[in-house]
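A student in our group prepared the protein record below, which I am reviewing. Thanks in advance; the entry in question is below.
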Amino acid sequence: MSPKRSVLIVDGSEESREVFRAALGREGMEVREAARADEGLELARHGSFDVIVLDMETEAASDRTVASEFGKAAQASSTPIVVLGAARRQ
């Protein structure tokens, strides 16, 4: 039996996390989630995930320092990050 794949969802929206949880859970993935960027960063630093999904509109995630820290945590563990967010018009 192959090990269960895991994903970390960092999204301030309970509804969005619920959609991810349901869809990925049906595919047999273990889903961990955080509503705040700092919680997600702590999980990313100390957990083992196959992928991290980060909503840049989550509280503080759009801060360059926080985004950089997610990048460092992901790079240290060779974990890909999927970044979600709305495109901004200048």
